[in-house]
Design a protein that fits this description.
The protein has 89 residues and is α+β, with helices and mostly antiparallel strands. It is built from two helices and five strands; from the N terminus they run αβββββα. The radius of gyration is 18 Å and the shape is globular. This is Arm DNA-binding domain-containing protein.
Length: 89
Amino acid sequence: MVENALCVSRCVSSFIMLTISVEVICYKVRPLRDNTYPLMLRLTQHRKRKYISLGVSVKEKDWDFKKNQPKKSCPDREAIVKLISDKVS
């Protein structure tokens, strides 16, 4: 019985260690010179965050901050959505 509990404990802790959340955000901390904001992947594991640039920037008015995706009025919406889906997958 103790061996089974120990095995379950190890399996659960291994699963928890591999859990990483991935989000796409519009990084408003550092605007670029052309008054756009870079899109970043935010990776979170054990409450530690790492940001990776997607190489694309958008204007603040073209980004939906609640849904974390470009608005329908964004001129490059289709290309940005495709880039995001390629990077996240």
